[in-house]
Design brief:
3 helices, 32% strand, elongated
Length: 182
Amino acid sequence: MKYRTYMVAVAAVLGFALAGCQPAAGPPTAGSSASVPGPSSSELAAIIQAAVEDRNGTVLDTPPAARLAEGQMTPAYRSKRERDLPVVARSKAGFKAMGFWYTSFSTKVTVESVEVTGSEASVRFQELTEEYQASTAGPSSVPSGYSLPQIATFRASGDGWQLDSLVPTVHGGGLPMSVVEG
């Protein structure tokens, strides 16, 4: 009988001790991952596709309308994009001064991995782009192309996931005209 009373007392103490280890109940705090549903790979890929096409469109003689909605980007991404536009415009003007310009492009984005940690997501992806050029001698029917590995970062907001950055994983010379480092 003593043994049984002892076990009940140990179980009660252990139960109270473990109850103190549980997280406090209550609503999630602002910015917690519990308040934001995790993104799907296809949702992030669609945002990346629109952003890369917008970026690549800046090198065209007549850039198309932007596809990435304002709510799909953070202020930091928007600011970087605005800083990059004059750099791309100067490169484009120099290219045209030599008698060449881009007329169209085709881009495919392939997501390689997605990592989500709380309210941040990181996506490794590969961009495959073909660009068509024209020159003072006439249009070319043979595209130039490139494949560029990149990382996109996202931040969760009340409206969903917003693109925060697009960064190539290779650096230095040989980057496409539309990609501005820094």
